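Issue 218. Parser rejects a valid record. Input:
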Amino acid sequence: MSEVEVRELRYFRAVAEQLNFSRAAAGLGIAQPALSRAIRQLERRLGVPLFLRDTRRVELTDAGQALLTETGRVLDALSAAVHRTRRAGAPTPTVVITAKAGVATELLRRMVTAHAALPDAPRVEVVISGYGEQTAMLRDGRADLALIGSPAEHTGFDVEPLLCEPRVAALPLGHPLAARAVLDCADLRGHPMPQWPGATPAARAYWAGRDHDLPDGPEAHDNSLLLETVALGQAIALVPSSLARHSARADIEYRPVRDAAPYRTVLAWPAGSRAPWIARFLRIARELAAESS
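Output the parser choked on:
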């Protein structure tokens, strides 16, 4: 088999995700004929067709579907190697830590402050990322450590559980459910609930407190927007109890939901990494998490 070029894999992935050569070429900033030639060259190198093409549609072959799965891991690994090598070789080595705004922000701030007080501590850059972005940033090397909350897929990472807390229902002021002291997940059925963009069915089930009859509701891109949606009476929501404590407001009432799965926060890093500063962050994170609990 001829050697496959990284550029060809990136081009293939763009077409595979769009299933349209024109849109893929525009996204890559190249001409469509050049993209088509590159894909044909890749198919010749591999000895198999990757796409079924006709005048109306483009579809992946079985081989193309297999390559799409594999290229995600390959390109992420390559990106991670480049990002982390550059950070390690910089005049001032830097560690990048990411977390979603909200529950983990205070813990992250305390971790960074404690780490900075250690002798010979590398510089730490904190990146506040959006819903579900933490794992992607770890995989492609944009981050070295991440605080990840439920629900999340941890495959390919080493993780340290830090916090486990109950969830509560966030209700608009005067909502009928607020008349009860304690709720069950069944009580939330039939009510609109905020939707996180890009959430998987399993994640939607977790945030809805059930695994069937998933509700529709307005999109929420962050916790601030989620709470505004609740306050305006457009939805109710299941949120971590710490978010409720830190977000007390006159137009929202919180009630415990006794059978809701808890919200867990873990510290994650690439599997097998043995960097000494990871051990120091782990020790600090454990100590601070114990204090928070």
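Fixed in the parser; the record now loads. The two ends are 56 Å apart (CA to CA).
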